[in-house]
Amino acid sequence: MSLVKYIDRKNTDCAKWDGLESSFSRGDLLAMWVADMDFQVPECVSDALKKYVDMGAFGYYVPPAGYYDAFINWEEKYHGYELKRDWMRFAPGVVPAFNWLVQLLAGEGEGVAVMQPVYYPFMMAVENNNRRLINCPLLSTEHGYEMDYESFEETIIREDVKAFIFCSPHNPVGRVWKRDEIRRMLDICKRHNVYVISDEIHHDIIMSGHEHVPSATAGDTEGAYDDILVTLTAATKTFNLAAVQNSIVIIPDEELREKWDKFTGGIRISCGNAFGYVAVQAAYEKGRPWFEELLGIIEGNFKYMRDRLKAELPEVKVADLEGTYLMWIDLSAYVNEAEAMKHLMEDECRIAADYGSWFGGDRYAGCIRINLATSRENIETAADRIIRALKKQ
Fold first, then answer.
1. Do the Cβ atoms of 144 and 166 come closer than 8 Å?
2. 186-215 confidence digits (pLDDT tens)
3. Section 110-118 average pLDDT
4. Distance CA 253, CA 242 (A)
5. C-alpha distances out from residue 374 to 44, 91, 246, 325, Å
6. What is the rounded CA–CA span in Å between residue 156 and residue 277?
7. Phi, then psi, of 327 in degrees rounded to 5
8. Angle of CA points 94, 98, 101, to nearest 5°
9. Residues pairing with 198 in the sheet
10. What is the pLDDT of residues 241-252, one digit of tens each?
11. Domains of the chain, start order
12. Distance between alpha carbon 208 and the CA centroid of its chain, in Å?
């Protein structure tokens, strides 16, 4: 019996399915955009939340030791990262966390770097907080996307960059960075006193043959980068828990922790709601069997979509999926302008995808990002529509 169960989320106040008109021209599209899943959470999470609801009193809550232990044990067992409870801080989401850190680690008008194409709230965090956005684009090579270390270091020096928002695994191109890649990037940042905000929210969604290396463990010696590094993660992507708004900020360095605590003390946000703690603890304690089945579904959906596109649209380029449940597809051989892509996807294919231009402007207008965390039926429908529409071109 399958542990991972698809659910039709239409008409459930779901942002992905019921909020289409916020970003698209119509509301009847096949929703393949927002990065959450069309799967019910593990039964252990539902059971824990039901037990808490049945208790019936929802006063002030103290996160139990079991919440911290569940995450610490998960990180050590599955990622080899031995972290301490004192390093853990709360944020209502990874996005609020890196917005706060941009304010903490760079002054107004100072440079904050990203590597496009990248998760577009990174750019929004920089610009909305009156910092200077510095792009150090990834290289697209015959072997996939890679960091351009020489250009990265030159740009850091030239633009006097103060902080860098790192995406690991990378959204949207699906790279799982190797240890030497992460180390080389961190060495550059340490050499030039650049803080690194490492967004590792997808760190569990790793395809077979790959391994996530926490940035904090990439050094030759323990704690080599602690003085410049803050790691952000959550159970959000792993267990489909975005709505409980519980994310984890890992700050090994005491001075950086003091800065964080002063900032969050000033805005009076140092802990979340009880439902988030209950759900996350249950997921990390008992949700592994569900998660392992989920990985097989995601990898199967990717291979199906990739193989269909390669067979029927040979000029389409598909980035290899090493991590995340997000598929980066280059359709520029057929369409390479933002408006033309919008017409193709919304009017011809009737699909809501994340547009490549959102991740770094016109340079990526020929690309789309597709969410694979849905039913095979939806994946098949999306593939059929894309192939049919592009064969008309």
1. no
2. 999 999 999 999 999 999 999 999 999 999
3. 98
4. 28
5. 21, 27, 23, 10
6. 38
7. -110, 125
8. 140
9. 166, 231
10. 999 999 999 999
11. 15-42+289-391 (3.90.1150.10), 57-286 (3.40.640.10)
12. 18
